[in-house]
Design brief:
The chain is an alpha/beta fold and 193 residues long. It contains 8 helices and 5 strands.
Length: 193
Amino acid sequence: MQNYRTPLCNFENIESRISDVINLPSWDKFMKSFKDAEHIYIVGNGGNWAVATHAAVDLARLTNKKVFSLDSTCYVTSIANDAGYENVFKKWLNLYADTKKKSLLICFSATGTSKNIVNALNWSSKRKNFKNFLITANSSNKNKKQNILNLNLKYFHSAELLTFMLFYEIVYQLGYQCPSIQSEVDRRKKPKR
């Protein structure tokens, strides 16, 4: 008989926490801002940068939203070299954000204290066409100019995974669906015209 293994890594029951998060009043406010936005900008550091980039791609491809993420290493290092890493997202937004579009900035930060994230949130708070949301694992950030979606988690990995899962929930709440693996296999089998 084979030994049954149990996970060693604590994922904090993140799948069940999706229900907790989408029933928060801040989720309703987040979804309204998301639906109203014409342009959406997503940023994060480290693992959250990877989540931001992947979420931006899938949200743009699976919905009718224009979603952007700063995912050029060349551009990030250029801005960081010239303006400092603490200003990298603020500078990117200042250069690329369309001032005529209703926009939403979504920032991922497990602690909510990353200087470049805080600076980007502060930048967007000063723009008439921008709303913002900080998605954080467990923040003590009480800045009234920022909307906070607090995941109430202990670990970075859990926060990154739950944040990513929530973006697929957005797809469904907007009335779209994620393709199944089998539907993609079937699509590839169809002869091209």
